[in-house]
Write a structure and sequence with these properties.
Layout: H1 4-38, H2 50-58, E1 60-65, E2 74-76, E3 79-81, H3 83-95, E4 98-103, H4 109-114, E5 120-126, E6 135-137, E7 142-143, E8 146-151, E9 166-170, H5 174-185, E10 190-195, H6 198-207, E11 212-216, H7 217-226, E12 230-235, E13 240-246, H8 250-265, H9 268-276
Parallel strand pairs: 1-4, 1-5, 9-10, 9-11
Antiparallel strand pairs: 2-3, 5-13, 6-13, 7-13, 8-11, 8-12
Helix pairs in contact: 3-8
């Protein structure tokens, strides 16, 4: 009698039971690892941020920056200095590493990340969400948008107070474009766009020939530092600057945001403003 079919059936049954047990073991192992990950324990299947690992191994954070865009990055006496330079150094200190600057033209900043020549961009970088596929962006550290500058005695707190007021802007600037929209909506605003440089408008504001000036936040900060009688009444537009790290560097991204939060809590950005935004 041929027992081959019965043996094959028995063998298949044993293999089926082993496969079922193996599948059950895999499910249990996966559940255990998932539970460990959820409870905060490290596990072998956790994703790995190679950029962050390499930074810790090297002990150095490589930062791409466009040298020459003052006051954010410049070279003086052979040394790199500036607002973003001090910020990058402070972030690196928070991360427990040193910093190495990688001079990079503005148009090539993102390429420095994708080619792994740099770990972070610190270069007056505007937040551009549509480029999120190329980089992860930090929390905002500076709003470079348009602001309203007035004298302390002008009693102007916002754009609703500009009716009947003389507002100066630099011709062709972003402030000019914004002011023209305001004047089109309210004909009581007296707009003077005859200024070739915003510094001339700010000088007229100081002497009382104007009631307000619309300009970018950085220029306004410099003006307020050098002329105590002036103040930034309100922000008009939101154009934030950010730091950027490689798109896959999720842990470095979290560490950079943690560092910025710590620096903000210590008043570091007020120190930066006083140090770099002055004539």
């Amino acid at each position: 009698m041929d027992h081959t079919p019965r043996c094959l059936s028995h063998l298949c049954s044993r293999w089926t039971r082993w496969l079922d047990r193996l599948a059950l073991l895999i499910v249990l192992l996966y559940a255990l690892l998932a539970w460990n990950a959820e409870s905060g324990a490290r596990c072998l299947l956790a994703p790995l941020d190679l950029t962050w690992t390499e930074i810790q191994w090297r002990g150095t954070l490589r930062v791409a920056t466009d040298i020459g865009f003052r006051p954010f990055a410049d070279e003086q006496d052979g040394q790199v200095v500036g607002y973003d330079i001090d910020l990058a150094r402070a972030v690196a200190t928070e991360l427990g590493v040193t910093v190495e600057f990688v001079p990079t033209g503005f148009d090539a900043l993102y390429d420095a990340l994708t080619s792994r020549r740099a770990d972070m961009i610190a270069s007056a970088l505007p937040y551009v969400p549509e480029l999120g596929y190329r980089a992860r962006f930090s929390t905002f550290y500076l709003n470079a948008g348009q602001v309203l500058v007035t004298r302390h005695d002008a009693f102007i707190t916002g754009q609703d107070d500009l009716a009947g007021r003389r507002v100066g802007v630099a011709l062709g600037s972003d402030g000019d474009a914004y002011a023209r929209r305001l004047a089109a909506a309210d004909e009581r605003i007296f707009l003077d766009s005859s200024y070739g440089e915003v510094s001339s408008a700010l000088a007229d504001l100081r002497c009382g020939a104007l009631d307000a000036v619309i300009t970018d936040h950085v220029t306004a900060l410099i003006a307020v530092q050098s002329a105590p009688g002036l103040q930034i009444a309100t922000a008009l537009t939101f154009e934030p600057y950010v730091l950027a790290v490689p798109s896959e560097a999720f842990q470095l991204h979290a560490e950079v945001n943690r560092a910025l939060e710590a620096l903000q809590a210590r008043g570091f950005f007020e120190e930066l403003n006083a140090r770099w935004f002055q004539e």
